[in-house]
Input
Amino acid sequence: MDARTTTRAAGRGAPTILIGQLAREAGCKVQTVRWYKEVGLLPPPARTEGGHRVYGRAHRERLACIRHGREFGFGLDPIRRLLDLAAHPERPCSDAHALAVAQLSEVEAKMRRLAGLRDEAARLVETGCRDGVAAQCRVLETLADHGHCLSAAHAVAEDAVTK
Output
């Protein structure tokens, strides 16, 4: 029997898929699906008689929501809170709105830091050397000494990008 098409989840008759297919549909790796389960964002899957994990429509929908939230830049805790809100439709939407406002604020701050980094990198390229030797290279000189920079703001932007 083919577990992808013939297994039914939790006796409800819902068609299920294996983890590889779920990951492909969501545009992520199998390890990512497993990790989301381990951190509690995805519920444990049902199992076939042979012990294979099988995922149903609810897993697909939840994983799509998680992935979309990550594309918006939400961290795991805000996504967990949004999923909890979605599971309790009687709760106020203002909680989700507050999370979205906070995320927008973070995105705007990151964009300001990245704009400063872009400006500094453009200046570095413009004042850098194309000819000459490394001992007199303006690019290397600037990277070695923050004092050559117009602003220290890009140091914060770099930290934000590498996290």
About this structure: Strands lie at 8-9, 14-15, 17-18, 46-47, 53-55. The CA atoms of residues 16 and 56 lie 5 Å apart. The chain is about 60% helix and 5% strand.
